[in-house]
Each structure stands twice: as C-alpha cells, then as structure tokens.
C-alpha cells in the first residue's frame, strides 16, 4: 500500500470525540445550532439541538428544566425560547497534550493518505443552565424579601467607606500572583470567542474540505519525507539509545535515583542524601555512598550540611530552608524558621525528649511549623512527648572524638545566639532527667551503683598511679630537685545519687548530662581530655597566647563570657586534631590574659545586677602602642570607681589628665575607638 502525506490541512485538523448518544439517535439526527472556539486554548463550545420528538425524550422533565432556568416570562435573554429544553451545550477539553504522533487516515484506491492532527478534543455536556436556574431562584427569593421590607428601604442609610491604598507589589509577590489559579482563569476568560459556521455532513462545502485529506500531488519531489533508504527507515523505527534516554519522562522531584546520584560530586551526594533523609547515622551514610569512599572526605563534607546530635547527623536548617524562602504554612521567612529549628535540634542535644508546647512557647511559631521541625528528627510518643528517632551512636563518638569536640563547640556558639534571641531561662538550659521517660529503662539498684562507682574510681586510681610512678622515675633520672607525694594526686570521684545516674558502661545509652558525648561542665577548671603531656604544654601556651593577643588588639575591652564565646568560635574554625583541642580551662585562659599585658578592671557593678559571674569579670589591654593609650587608661580608671558616669564628667577628666580641650565630638570618637565594648556592656 502506498502511503502519502497530505499537507493541505496541516495545523488545521482537529479530532472531536463526542459522548455516547442513545442508540435511537444517529449522527444525522443531531443538528449543530452554533459553534465557537478559543484558538490559543484550543477550547471549543458547540450548541446542539435535541430531538424532542424522540420517544426517549422526557417532555415533562424538559419543561421543568426550562421553567427553572428562564422562569415564566420569555424574552430574548431566555435560554430556551420554546419553553422546552430543546438544545444542549458541549464544551471541549484536551484529550492529549502531545498529538504529534496522531494522524487522520483516508484509504482510497489502494492508497493511504495521512494528515497530522493539530489537536484531539473531548466534548462533554455543559451544565451551566443549572447555575442560571440557581441564580433565578436566588433572585426570586431576594425579590420576595425585598417586597416585605420596601418601606424600610425608603431611607438610605449613610455607610462609612474605608479607603485603602495598595502596597507596591514585589517581584516575588508578582510571580506568585501570575502562577495562581485565579490569574490563569482570568487570562483564559479574557480570550475572546471566535464564532464559527457549521456545515453539515452532506453539505457541498464539507465535501470540498474533505478533498484536502488527500495528497494533492503524487510526485516524489513533494513527498521526500516518505522516501527513505532501508537503513534510514530502520533508524527511524529504532532510534539510538541516546534519543530514547532523552525521551524518557522525568522522575518525580521526591524520587532519588542512586545510579544518577553516584555520578555527582561527593559533596552534592551527601547534601542530597541528607536533605531527603534528614537524620542519619554515619555508618548508614557510608553504606549509601558505596564502597571505596574515603571516610575522611565524607567527614569533611558532612560537617558543611549537617550537625551532630546524639552521635547522629541531622541536616542543617539553612539547607532545608534556603534564603529568600518562606514557610508554606504561615509565610514566616526562612531566617526565623532556621532559628526555630536550630532550637529544636539544640534541645535534642540536651535530652532525648522534647515537649511540643515548650518549643512553640519559646519560638512563637505556628503549630504546623513546629510539627514539621519535630517530624524531621523525632517520633511522637503518647503522653510523653517527642523522642529523638535514632539511638545514641556510641561507636561514632568513640572513634571520632575530635569531630565530637568540634561539634560541641559549634553547639555552644549556637546556644549563645539562642539565649540572646529567645531570652532563654535556666529551666530551658538545664537538661531534664529522663529516667521515667526512657524508652528502655534500666533498673539498677543503689548498691549496684555504689559498687560500679567504686570499681571505676579504683580503675582511675590505678592509671593515675602508673603515670605518677613514670613521672617520678623520669625526675630521678634527670636529678630533679622537686619531689612529688602520692597524696598530692587528686582522684576525681563522681557523686553517687539516686537522682542523677552515674556515667557507667551499664547504661551509657541514657546519655544523662552529655552533650554529643562530652560532659558539659562549664564551671570545671579541669581539662576536657585529662592531663596534657609535658611536650604539648609549650605549644598549647603559644597558640593560646597568639589567640588572646590578636583578640585584645581588635577589641581592647572584653568580659570573660565574651572571651570564652570568641574562643569557642575560634576552636570551631580549627582543623581536627589541633593542639588547642587538648583542653583549656577557665583558669588557664584568665592567666594567659594577664600574661599578655591585660589587666582586670574591677567595675563596681550594682549588687542587684542579673549578669552572670563571667560577665562581671572585665579585662582590658592596658597598653596597645597607639595614640589612645593614655585616653584608654584614664577611662579605665574612671570606670573602676563607678559603673555609670556622665559624659561631661568623662570630658572634664580627659581634659585634665591629657591636657587637651576635647569637645563633644572628640569625646565620642575616643569612647568609640577606645572603649566601645565596655560602654555597651555597662549600658546593657
């Protein structure tokens, strides 16, 4: 059979699919009264006459519908002028979005002529006349009610009108409005109908148009698309695999292909996995990345997109809520959402349980946002609260203490920010005891606790005694003059109490008083990692002195609390295994401050102040080597006598001591350059 391609009706031919009609009605029985189309939307509306004389037609029902739609009066606006439902409207919808592979075929005299379809439209009955009937019914009811109260409407009441000016529309708001359903509906309604003239099946014009379904020229020059060599024809039937891959449908956005994932860089793989999973142990992450992946590189990348919570990695808030986004529930900006989710993550570093009402009361976010935060990393337990979804990963904490220490410092910095933003109370900062709430409670008697504590003390004592004997032998070999007595070695014993379980191996999974595997003892002056080796002390002192010197050259006056915060941020920026991770106590830090030429300023703060002890300790660089040294020393002397001083007193004192007549602007500049941080502290 010869196949020809007809081009006369290209981009003009539509296929209409009509609904199934009764068997007694044939196509010839249907008369098209009117037709109209919206070309851009490919939307067609046809009005067809109904055969009211057909035995399948219910006349009483047709009269009732016409009465409901038009009422008793008949005019030009009536839908059914014959007082009988004698016509029906059909509206179209697209049956297929891509019709490029569909064609209309006509077979004649051993030849097959194909014409590509421009659209396939399905026609369905339109019931807009029911809306008109409802509108007529409401109008009649309103007229009846209006007749009863016609006298009351004689006098029009004066109503106050509120005038509002619209705000300037932002680009983001405009994009949301353009993509909204109402805007699209409005644009579709604005397109004008193009009225068409319908020609019947046996009309001469229809016969003429049907001739265009045949190819007008049978010459080979006009049908080169169908003249292909066998190899080209085979290529058209079975295209290369590359084209097949391009034609494959895109996977949904929430479906992750592991084959495609492993083609991406390692950092992108980890980010996509954490963004989809939210919470994951490190061992599971390594198994998903495949064999041969370097664990050191994974640790370096995971810290950029996740935080350590109870030994497990939880995706960072700014990864889930990027900048310039907002909550789908409340419209709150991403910055506020990140702060609220960080608070939830921080709470789980303190305890395995979190109460939803407490989070909502602190963050002031809507319940839907808080629920999303909790569902990311925890599971709801009836009458208990929300429990962290994964158990404490003790293996990771033991294998990577440097990572744990670094994450602990980061959490201390986040905690300081949260304290300032949310004004957290002590009850929010203190971890709650979870003996009664533990999913798998361990019943340990008091006698067993005492025995376990004694065994641990003996074990620690034995290790310390061995170290002491080793140091004593070294001192004897070097003819050292100093002698050490065993009684001078202090063994730190943990308190035995029924209220606070001890940190023993029998129930390490409970993690009481542990933040990411480290004891958070802020007031302790001992090193976090025990005693420092003798060879490391000099290197630690040099690093610490360099940090203190550079910090006080940038900010001449600091409180101990602010200095500790800056030191924690400095530790978080250091690489794993740095010498400063060996442990720096508060006393060591204060001694180093005094050794670098700083002095402690005893500011007489009022006794009723709410500041912490670390905030009351003020240190200042006495000599910086600049032109403001004398002014700075005068200011420090002034504030060491009184914590609140008037500006004119400062101006007079500076003029007397420095021999300069300073005006108000010069005094402000001196305060800003020399003493800005301590002035801000005293004002707060």
DSSP helix fraction: 40-55%
Q: Radius of gyration, Cα only, in angstroms?
A: 42 Å
How many strand units? 20
Number of helices: 26
Uncertain segments of ≥5 residues (pLDDT<50)? 243-248, 433-442, 479-532, 679-684
The assembly state of the depicted protein chains is single chain
Largest beta-sheet details: 6 strands, mixed
Separation, N- and C-terminal Cα atoms: 95 Å
Strand order of the largest sheet: 2-8-5-4-3-9
Strand content: 5-15%
Average pLDDT taken over every residue: 75
Shape type: elongated
Which class best fits the helix and strand makeup? alpha+beta
Topology:
Elements: E1 2-5, E2 14-17, E3 31-38, E4 43-49, H1 59-70, E5 87-94, E6 103-108, E7 111-116, E8 119-125, H2 128-148, H3 171-178, H4 181-190, E9 194-196, H5 204-210, H6 230-237, H7 241-247, H8 258-261, H9 266-277, E10 279-280, H10 282-289, H11 295-305, E11 306-309, E12 312-315, H12 317-320, H13 334-350, E13 353-354, H14 356-363, H15 367-377, E14 378-381, E15 385-388, H16 394-399, H17 401-422, H18 426-429, H19 446-477, E16 514-515, E17 518-519, H20 537-554, E18 557-559, H21 560-572, H22 586-595, E19 598-601, H23 613-616, E20 618-621, H24 629-641, H25 647-658, H26 664-683
Parallel strand pairs: 1-7, 2-8
Antiparallel strand pairs: 3-4, 3-9, 4-5, 5-8, 6-7, 10-12, 11-12, 13-15, 14-15, 16-17, 18-20, 19-20
């Amino acid at each position: 059979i010869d196949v020809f391609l007809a081009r006369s009706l290209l981009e003009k031919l539509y296929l209409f699919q009509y609904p199934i009609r009764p068997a007694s009605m044939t196509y010839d029985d249907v008369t098209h009264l009117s037709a109209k189309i919206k070309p851009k939307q490919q939307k067609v509306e046809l009005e067809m006459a109904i055969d009211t004389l057909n035995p399948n037609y219910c006349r009483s029902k047709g009269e009732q519908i016409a009465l409901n739609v038009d009422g008793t009066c008949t005019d030009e606006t009536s839908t059914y002028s014959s007082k009988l439902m004698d016509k029906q409207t059909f509206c179209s919808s697209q049956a297929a979005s891509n019709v490029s592979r569909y064609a209309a075929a006509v077979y004649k005299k051993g030849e097959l002529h194909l014409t590509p379809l421009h659209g396939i439209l399905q026609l369905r009955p339109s019931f807009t006349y029911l809306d008109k009937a409802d509108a007529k019914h409401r109008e009649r009811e309103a007229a009846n009610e209006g007749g009863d109260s016609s006298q009351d409407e004689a006098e029009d009441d004066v109503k106050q009108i509120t005038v509002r000016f619209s705000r300037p529309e932002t680009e983001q708001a405009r994009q949301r409005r353009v993509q909204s359903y109402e805007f699209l509906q409005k644009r579709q309604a604005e397109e004008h109908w193009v009225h068409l003239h319908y020609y019947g099946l046996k009309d001469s014009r229809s016969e003429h148009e049907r001739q265009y379904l045949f190819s007008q020229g049978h010459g080979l020059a006009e049908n080169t698309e169908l003249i292909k060599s066998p190899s080209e024809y085979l290529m058209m039937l079975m295209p290369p695999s590359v084209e097949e891959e391009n034609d494959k449908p895109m996977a949904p956005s929430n479906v992750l292909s592991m084959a495609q994932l492993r083609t991406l860089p390692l950092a992108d793989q980890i980010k996509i996995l954490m963004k989809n999973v939210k919470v994951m142990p490190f061992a599971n992450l390594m198994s998903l990345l495949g064999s041969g992946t370097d664990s050191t590189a994974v640790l370096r990348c995971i810290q950029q997109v996740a935080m350590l919570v109870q030994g497990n990695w939880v995706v960072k808030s700014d990864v889930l809520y990027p900048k310039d986004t907002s909550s789908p529930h409340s419209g709150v900006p991403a910055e506020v959402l990140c702060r609220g989710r960080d608070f939830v993550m921080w709470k789980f570093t303190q305890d395995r349980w979190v109460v939803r009402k407490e989070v909502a009361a602190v963050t002031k976010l809507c319940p839907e946002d808080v629920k999303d935060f909790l569902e990311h990393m925890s599971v709801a337990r009836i009458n208990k609260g929300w429990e962290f979804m994964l158990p404490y990963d003790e293996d990771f904490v033991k294998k990577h203490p440097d990572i744990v220490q670094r994450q602990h410092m980061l959490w201390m910095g986040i905690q300081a920010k949260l304290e300032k933003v949310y004004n957290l109370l002590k009850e929010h900062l203190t971890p709650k005891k979870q003996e009664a709430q533990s999913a798998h409670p361990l019943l340990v008697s008091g006698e067993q606790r005492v025995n376990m504590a004694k065994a641990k003390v003996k074990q620690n004592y034995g290790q310390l005694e061995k170290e002491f004997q080793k140091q004593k032998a070294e001192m004897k070999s070097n003819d050292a003059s100093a002698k050490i007595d065993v009684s001078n070695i202090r063994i730190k014993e943990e308190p035995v109490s029924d209220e606070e379980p001890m940190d023993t191996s029998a129930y390490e999974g409970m993690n009481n008083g542990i933040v990411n595997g480290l004891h958070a003892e802020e007031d302790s002056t001992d090193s976090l990692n025990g005693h420092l080796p003798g060879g490391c002390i000099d290197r630690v002192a040099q690093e610490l002195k360099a940090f203190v010197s550079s910090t006080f050259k940038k900010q001449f006056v600091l409180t101990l609390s602010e200095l500790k915060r800056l030191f924690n941020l400095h530790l978080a920026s250091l690489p794993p295994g740095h010498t400063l991770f060996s442990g720096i106590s508060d006393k060591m830090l204060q001694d180093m401050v005094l050794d670098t030429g700083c002095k402690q300023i005893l500011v007489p703060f009022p006794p009723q102040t709410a500041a912490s002890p670390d905030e009351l300790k003020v240190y200042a660089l006495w000599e910086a080597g600049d032109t403001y040294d004398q002014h700075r020393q005068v200011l420090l002397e002034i504030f060491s006598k009184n914590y609140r001083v008037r500006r004119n007193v400062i101006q007079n004192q500076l003029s007397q001591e420095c021999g300069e007549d300073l005006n108000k602007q010069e005094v402000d500049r001196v305060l800003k350059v020399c003493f800005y941080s301590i002035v801000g502290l005293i004002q707060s």
